[in-house]
Amino acid sequence: NAGVTQTPKFQVLKTGQSMTLQCAQDMNHEYMSWYRQDPGMGLRLIHYSVGAGITDQGEVPNGYNVSRSTTEDFPLRLLSAAPSQTSVYFCASSYSKGAKQYFGPGTRLTVT
Amino acid sequence: GQQLNQSPQSMFIQEGEDVSMNCTSSSIFNTWLWYKQDPGEGPVLLIALYKAGELTSNGRLTAQFGITRKDSFLNISASIPSDVGIYFCAGQEPSGNEKLTFGTGTRLTIIP
Hints:
The complex is a heterodimer. Chain A has no helices and eleven strands. Chain A has strands at residues 4-7, 10-13, 19-25, 31-37, 43-51, 54-57, 64-66, 76-78, 87-94, 102-103, 107-111. In chain A, the strands form two sheets. In chain A, strands 2, 4, 5, 6, 9, 10 and 11 form a seven-stranded mixed beta sheet that branches. In chain A, strands 1-3-8-7 form a four-stranded antiparallel beta sheet, with no helix packed on it. Chain A is globular. Chain B is an all-beta fold. Helix content of chain B is 0%, strand content 54%. Chain B is built from no helices and eleven strands. Chain B has strands at 4-7, 10-14, 19-25, 31-37, 44-49, 55-58, 61-65, 71-76, 85-92, 100-102, 106-111. The A-B interface holds A 4, 31, 33, 35, 40-45, 48, 50, 58-59, 90, 92, 94, 96-97, 99-106 and B 1, 4, 6, 30-31, 33, 35, 40-45, 48, 88, 90, 92, 97-100, 102-105.
């Protein structure tokens, strides 16, 4: 198993540009989530999904969209990037109710 | 929302020393998780705790689920250089969903 994979590893955007961060898992996990990590603030939940076709907002959802068309994939979309979205983004997955979330390697995003 | 206080924020120790860190929450959790993050990587799950009072070990690491269900502790015995990194606690609320709340992390540095 590859576990949780994320692409790209690094990305630089200009203010106003859009992009999609990709996340995939091959563990047949129902639950997937996106976090952002900023210095001194730990990880904050952006959006999560409890299964294909079902998504919900986390703690800091503004400026981000998600969809879950398959069990394996959970992309995160930035429609109009802002400098405040400069951060490291982590995708995670878990088998429903287990609470053991497994993290991807992260995407480091810089918005200028 | 749920708040997690993790302490200390940073630790500077010598190789061979024991390490203790803890997390406290403003309300009850059903599950406590401890993660370690190496530079440029995603968090890796170390220990999961599911019952108040539970004490679980993983090699030189021992974690406990506090009996009040509002705190958890992680101890590392006889530290070695590869223990360097950031340690995060995370808790799951008893609401039935999969959302985790993360602490702000403890950065462990080993002084030569």
